[in-house]
Write a structure and sequence with these properties.
Strand 4 and strand 5 form a beta hairpin. The protein has 180 residues and is an alpha+beta fold. The protein is 56% helix and 18% strand. Helix 3 packs antiparallel against helix 4. A three-stranded antiparallel β-sheet has the order 1-4-5. A three-stranded mixed β-sheet has the order 2-6-3, with no helix packed on it. It folds into two domains: 65 residues; 103 residues, Head domain of nucleotide exchange factor GrpE (Nucleotide Exchange Factor Grpe, Chain A, domain 2), CATH 2.30.22.
Amino acid sequence: MNTEANSTAAAATDDPNSEPAIAALESALAAAQSEAQANRDGQLRALAELENVRKRAQRDIENAHRFALERFAAELLPVRDSLELALQSGSADAPGLLAGVDATLKLLGKAFEKGAISRLDPAGASFDPALHEAVLAQPSAEVPEGTVLQVLQSGYQLNGRLLRPARVIVSRAPEGGAAT
């Protein structure tokens, strides 16, 4: 009888409809589903990271194209300054020379425009330390404190990025009272 009981017990555990077998299968299914979900989550994270890397690389390439001229443009700024100074301080004795300087300055201005290099002209605007460099604070009762009174050297931007800050004289409150 012992052998018969053992064979019946073995048959009961081999029976796929028995409660222990169903519980074991349900447990295995739950573990497999959990693992599948974890793998799916990992796959989605990897795809998202890959997309972020692709977008970052594209943005870096675009920035490299937009700002490739930055160093060259910065080297041209003193040339423009010199041409403007020559035009301002030129004498009437050499009208041909002044006309040549003016024509060269216009050509350089067109090249700057094509290269997306823009001049900052902050005269009369509020002082912005991100775009301007204050070299002097001058008392003034006519304008509010922190207003750009005079531009000593123009500033420039390349595609919105600062190449050189404008060097300016900024107003401050007069010694005897506050500005209006």
